[in-house]
Amino acid sequence: MRGMQKQRNFSALMLAIVLLELILTLTVGVCVMLRQNSKLVFENILENEEQDLQFSVDNVIRDLDRQRRDLKAEGMSDEEIKTVVQKHLYAKIHSDQFGDSQYMWVNQILNYAGGDNYAIRLIHAGMPETEGQYLSTAQKDIRGNTPYETELAGVKAKGSGFQRYYFNDPTTGKETEKIAYYRLYKEYDWVICEGENLTSIAEYEARQRRELMPVVIRLILFGSLFLTVITGISISMYSEQHNKILREKNKALNVAVYQDALTKIYNRGGLILHLDQWLADKNTEDLTGVFLDLDDFKLINDLYGHEAGDAALCRLARHLTESFPDALVGRTGGDEFCVMIRNRSPQECEERILKALQKKIEFSVDGKSISFTASAGYASYPSQAASREQLMRVMDIALYAAKAEGKHTVKQFCPGMSSIRRERFGFSVSRMAAGMPGAFLVYRADQGEEILFGNDHLIKLYECRDYDDFLQFTGGSFRNMIHPEDVDRAEREIREQIQKDQVRNPDKTTGYEDYITYRIIAKTGKIKSVLDMGRLVQDEHYGEIYYVFLQDLEVLRHLGGFGDADARVNLSDP
Fold first, then answer.
1. Are residues 104 and 116 in the same domain?
2. How many CB atoms lie within 10 A of CB 261?
3. Does residue 176 sit in helix, strand or coil?
4. CB contact at 8 A, 92 and 59
5. What pTM was computed for the model?
6. Do 236 and 290 share a structural domain?
């Protein structure tokens, strides 16, 4: 009996020890998971705040560039422009509404070598009393860090960056950590910064931890009671269930943070996260990165609606994931996508890219079949870029080189592409049409001859008030633009000339031309004779259409010097 009693006592003691160890393990494990959850919450919020700070500073710099261009166009000198821009920036920073822990400031660098008086505080919304003070790279925060030295080094190395440092909060007297984003505006040697105290983020994370604490305590008590009955099974079941919940939460969090809501592929953040993991992986020998841009995306939205635009983006995302199943595929913004291919030869990557984009991509909306193409630029790592930032920059340059040659084009990066001027992409159809030296219109080459576009010179030629007035006057049809007595002859001559051009040049890809004259009647009743120079082309969205350039013959004659041309194109009155 004594032996059995001792055995039971020993078993009870061992059980108690095991239970205590398991309860302690459970308690420690839950606390670690709570801490990890808090850390994850803090890091995600901090990442969002960094993006907000960078977006805010970048917007200010874009405004400065735009304002300088406008003032330059007004004829101001560089010194006058700088004065106006600085005054405007000062007023903007001091008038903008920032959060309680957020503000913007501007330092002007006087000496890039650093040292005392290397810069001057130009603007500071949070501490206006510091404006005009000189700064030193030797100045330290309360922990001995040298934020100005760090900022200057980042400006000289990359032109921008983030940094964190500490100071005493004047309202609470407590040590406070601050994160700031800075970017150099090289034209004036201004370092434009925006910072935010991390106190609010820390408080939010602590509040989350406090709210979870009662749940943690109940979980520990429940686990302790359950472990006294079936210790081993309970621990196993609990661990599995808890891990499952944690995996599901992490999965849901990753989807929310790193997945594009529309296309369900990686967003820019998700793509960069996984790309950085690839770059850090020793098994990654090389990478080929591709930037893609959907051709005529705005036209799809304008013609078929934004629902069709969204469908086109989803179709392109699906096409890319199917074409590159082993690659990283993400939507980096708007109609721009990115593909990252790892450990494939340059030749194989080129073949896969060309194969994926060689044909039109089709989809349907409300039973209507729509097709589109995409342009792409690609580059290689590490042969053409030493870092992720450089790789994405040269990919972007290659994409613009492709777009510079027109739609449905693929280009590999080469150093000469850096000289491409992007201003050419800023010209819209309406701006170019307004600058043409004459009347211009586009209309369908079908029985209805519907007018699709007309510039201001055309409206002036017909002496109408505006475009709507012109459409109402002509009934929206090219046929009604011609004098009734000349309609049949004009349309017959157009058809005959087009047919002759088609017979003479059956393989022509630029369209078929006609040159005729006829009379028109302006809205005021005035009769004018015009020269019609037209071209019939095939448009993938509208079918066959005419591009027509009209010139008033009377104006041409007054200009003089058109004698030989008159004979060739028959500029006499019809």
1. yes
2. 9
3. strand
4. no
5. 0.43
6. no
- For the cut 80, the answer to whether the pLDDT of residue 200 exceeds it is no
Contact, 512 vs 485, CB < 8 A? no
d(CA 208, CA 202) in angstroms, rounded, equals: 10
Is residue 458 assigned to a domain? Answer: yes
Whether residue 220 is found in the same domain as residue 284: no
Q: At what angle do helices 2-73 and 231-258 cross, to 10 degrees?
A: 0
Q: Where are the beta strands (DSSP E) in 215-327?
A: 287-294
Domain count across the chain: 4
- Mark whether 339 and 437 lie in a shared domain: no
For residues 13 and 261, give the distance between their C-alpha atoms in angstroms, rounded to a whole number.
56
In this structure, the answer to whether residues 401 and 334 fall within a common structural domain is: yes
Can you give the pLDDT at residue 111?
94
Residue 5 has pLDDT above 60, yes or no: no
What's the average model confidence in pLDDT over 67-93?
91
Give helix 199-229 / helix 2-73 axis angle, nearest 10°.
Answer: 160
The answer to whether the bond into 128 is cis (omega within 30° of 0) is: no
CB atoms within 10 A of CB 235: 17
> Which of 398, 423, 448 represents a domain boundary (last residue)?
423
Domain containing residue 99: CATH number: 3.30.450.20
The predicted-structure confidence for 161-182, as pLDDT tens digits, reads as follows 999 888 877 677 788 888 899 9
Which two three-digit tokens encode residue 154? 């980042």
Residues 375-389: tens digit of each pLDDT: 999 999 999 999 999
Q: How far apart are CA 373 and CA 104, in angstroms?
A: 43
Reduced to 3 states (helix: H, G, I; strand: E, B; else coil), residue 474 is: helix
Three state DSSP letters for 376-407: EEEEEECCCCCCHHHHHHHHHHHHHHHHHCCC
Rounded-to-integer distance, Cα 209 and Cα 38, Å: 7
pLDDT of residue 218: 73
Identify the CA nearest to 28 among candidates 241, 215, 205, 220: 220
| Single-letter amino acid code for the residue at 550 | L
Report if residue 36 sits inside a domain. Answer: yes
CB-CB contact of 131 with 121 (8 Å): yes
Residues 333 and 232 in one domain: no
